[in-house]
Amino acid sequence: MSTARAIRQVFLAIEQAEGAGARVRRSIGTPKLRNFSPFLMLDHFTIGKGAGFPDHPHRGQETITYLLSGGVDHEDFAGNKGTIGPGDLQFMTAGRGIMHAEMPHENEDGSPNVGMQLWVDLPKELKMCEPRYRDLRSSEIPVAQLDEGRVTVKVISGQSHGIDSVRDLAYTPVWLLDVTIRPGGRISQPLPKGWNTFAYTLEGDAVFGSSDSTQHVKQFHNVVFEQEGDFVEASVPDNAEAGARFIIVSGQPLDQKVVQYGPFVLNSQEEVYQAMVDFQSAANGFEKSRNWQSEIGKRMAH
């Protein structure tokens, strides 16, 4: 018998200022939700003209950036450069060390650049791996249609209703699904056993949970599910004025201590101190950071 996962908590992601001129709704990595392994942080960001995330380092984690609208450029100290547009993703493994900048586009219509950034912990044996990037274009993401077309699932990673993403984009196993439900639609989404799972609501209102215990959830909320159970359920009532859109994210928990100081995520206080020393002395993975400045970060100077 497969059973539905119960909801552990639901809470609003409060908007706050972050970086230079960005607005962020942070839900994971706040007092409401910490130590939700392998997830370290989830930001729903809005970055307009003249704002962004200029040159900064990372060690010990992976970041997954999913752009919903606009465009974001990135550039790092190893000469990697790229741009993601609406519906595109970038998976960055910081590993032993990366220094990079992420800067938004100035859109002709003045619209902001909006997206999600998820930080995923790396298993301790991979903390010091070589950094890498993988881009996934919107056009490469397979789509599952279900419930007579009332539900659409973009299968970014993982599996949904017979559609497999066929991509391993992160070292730590993570499923990422972008779900749109029209009024009257319902989804029952199977998930790997024992993985930590949440949903984040982007648009509209949805009902999460199954028959005996459901919760009506509005926009910009994080829905955290219990670890036990085989699937999560969500629906939009027949009489709803509009549909709903949310992401479902599930990841394999890591049995390890998390010690985080800003952009460094390691397993002990000593390793964090070492990361700070390595960055300041441009050593052990940060050699290329010495005197490096991104071209895109210079946009902030004007």
From TrEMBL:
GO molecular function: metal ion binding
Every Pirin N-terminal domain range: 22-120
Cofactor or coenzyme needed: Fe cation
Binding site for Fe cation: H56, H58, H100, E102
Residue span(s) of domain Pirin C-terminal: 177-284
Cofactor descriptive note: Binds 1 Fe cation per subunit.
Top-level division of the source organism's lineage: Eukaryota
InterPro entries attached to this UniProt entry: Pirin, Pirin_C_dom, Pirin_N_dom, RmlC-like_jellyroll, RmlC_Cupin_sf
Similarity comment: family membership: Belongs to the pirin family.
Name under which the protein is recorded: Pirin
